[in-house]
């Protein structure tokens, strides 16, 4: 029987899928966001909750997304629709795909702003701007950047164009080609920097901060942040992994592949934390400094090392590459849907979406200067995009996906697609039917209760 394939193309082999999905997962979430939200939420206790979420909620949902994508072989919106039809359900399930595509655009808008900062730092490091910089100067420099609308706009625009150029190339000539070049580069850079951070001393205090468990630090707010981050970091709840799954070869096993991706993502986050916190403490900086944490601490550390600007340069190149491969996956669900729906080529689809994302991104940039007074529930536009996606839309999307895969799709379809050993299938089935939906619903409910009671 001829294997059903996506009209958009297919990965050449299982490894390309693993690398592409890892490229989607490993991004600013690991290197920029994880350290600063860990700092804001008190360290070890937060990390533990986050790891539990990855294991009990993230991995089972990632399996479901790959499964749905590979069985549907289309954009998430249309794959959900077809699978619903196959299981004799209402096509309203495709609404989960819609929310996902929207979340992708919203995430991209603030993601691109931060990626723009990263590009600015790549250029600055190459220029030697940060040699011998102290922590006060580094803080000032970052603040100046945030106030400088034009510079922000330039780098944000550059990043949007970089991403669109790859996505417009399609699955094989765009996504796969970028993956094959960028992912090996990412691993090499990460390895160099890990070796560097381990020899740079002051390891103990940073290690302690990450892994010392103090339950008194935990609030329901921080549990919600940990849950939301487990979705964000694994690119779940919005269809990126589903879209990538739709290009996956049929023979490859889903379970083992997913575990590998989750493991790599977690490893990169922990390594990033271990690289950043020792520096924070060694320079008496505040671990709760927020989004600027990475942009202030790292230049300080690199600025003081002999040859540090070279490592600093490599580090920001690494972050830029990681952000690039992730942002590509943020656009893929919406682009694939537009191509299916309007029967257009990728370039016009990418251009239309690129303009939309770019405009939203300008509002995010403005949060740091001309729109800094615009606040909704105490949040700037930038914070709002982040909060609404990571803490609400992604977990909600994940909840729908878990209910859909666990309770709605016919069991034979699941078994056929997963082809797992009985034990592992049962473990996954239990997690997706009970553990994941209950955990997400309970954490939502408790937070609402705490807000209004
Ligand atoms: N997983 C990416 C990160 O950790 O930076 C961010 C992301 C990419 C989130 C793609 C969601 C997504 F669909
Ligand atoms: Na990640």
UniProtKB/TrEMBL annotation:
The chain crosses the membrane at residues 12-32, 44-68, 95-120, 152-171, 183-203, 223-245, 257-281, 310-335, 347-368, 388-407, 428-449. GO terms for molecular function: symporter activity. PROSITE patterns: NA_NEUROTRAN_SYMP_1 (PS00610), NA_NEUROTRAN_SYMP_3 (PS50267). Keywords: Membrane, Symport, Transmembrane, Transmembrane helix, Transport. Its main location: membrane. It is found in: Membrane. It is a multi-pass membrane protein. Belongs to the sodium:neurotransmitter symporter (SNF) (TC 2.A.22) family. This is Transporter. It comes from Neptunomonas japonica JAMM 1380.
């Amino acid at each position: 029987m001829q294997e059903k394939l996506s009209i958009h193309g297919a990965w050449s082999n299982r490894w390309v899928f693993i690398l592409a999905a890892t490229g989607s997962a490993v991004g600013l979430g690991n290197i920029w966001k994880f350290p600063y939200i860990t700092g804001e939420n008190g360290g070890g206790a937060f990390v533990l909750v986050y790891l539990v979420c990855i294991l009990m909620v993230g991995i089972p949902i990632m399996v479901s997304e790959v499964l749905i994508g590979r069985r549907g072989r289309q954009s998430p919106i249309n794959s959900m629709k077809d699978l619903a039809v196959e299981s004799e359900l209402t096509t309203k399930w495709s609404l989960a795909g819609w929310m996902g595509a929207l979340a992708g655009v919203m995430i991209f808008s603030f993601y691109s702003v931060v990626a723009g900062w990263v590009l600015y730092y790549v250029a600055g490091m190459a220029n030697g701007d940060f040699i011998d910089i102290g922590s006060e100067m580094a803080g000032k420099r970052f603040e100046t950047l945030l106030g400088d609308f034009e510079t922000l706009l330039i780098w944000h625009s550059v990043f949007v164009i970089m991403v669109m150029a790859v996505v417009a190339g399609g699955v094989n000539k765009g996504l796969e080609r970028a993956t094959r070049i960028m992912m090996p580069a990412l691993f090499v850079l990460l390895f160099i920097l890990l070796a560097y951070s381990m020899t740079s001393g002051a390891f103990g205090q940073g290690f302690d901060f990450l892994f010392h468990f103090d339950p008194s630090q935990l609030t329901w707010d921080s549990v919600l942040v940990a849950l939301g981050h487990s979705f964000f970091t694994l690119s779940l709840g919005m269809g990126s992994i589903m879209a990538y799954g739709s290009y996956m070869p049929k023979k490859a096993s889903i379970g083992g592949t997913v575990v590998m991706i989750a493991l790599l993502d977690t490893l990169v986050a922990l390594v990033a934390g271990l690289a950043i916190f020792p520096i924070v403490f060694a320079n008496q900086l505040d671990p709760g400094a927020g989004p600027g944490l990475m942009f202030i601490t790292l230049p300080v550390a690199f600025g003081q090392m002999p040859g540090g600007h070279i490592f600093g340069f490599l580090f920001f190149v690494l972050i830029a590459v990681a952000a690039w491969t992730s942002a590509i996956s943020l656009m893929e669900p919406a682009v694939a849907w537009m191509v299916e729906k309007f029967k257009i080529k990728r370039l016009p689809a990418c251009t239309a979406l690129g303009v939309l994302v770019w405009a939203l991104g300008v509002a995010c940039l403005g949060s740091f200067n001309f729109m800094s007074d615009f606040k909704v529930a105490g949040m700037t536009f930038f914070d709002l995009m982040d909060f609404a996606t990571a803490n609400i839309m992604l977990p909600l999307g994940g909840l729908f996906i878990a209910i859909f895969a666990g309770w709605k799709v016919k069991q034979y379809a699941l078994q056929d697609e997963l082809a797992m050993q009985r034990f592992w299938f049962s473990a996954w089935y239990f997690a997706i039917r009970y553990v994941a939906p209950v955990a997400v619903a309970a954490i939502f409910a408790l937070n609402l209760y705490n807000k209004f009671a």
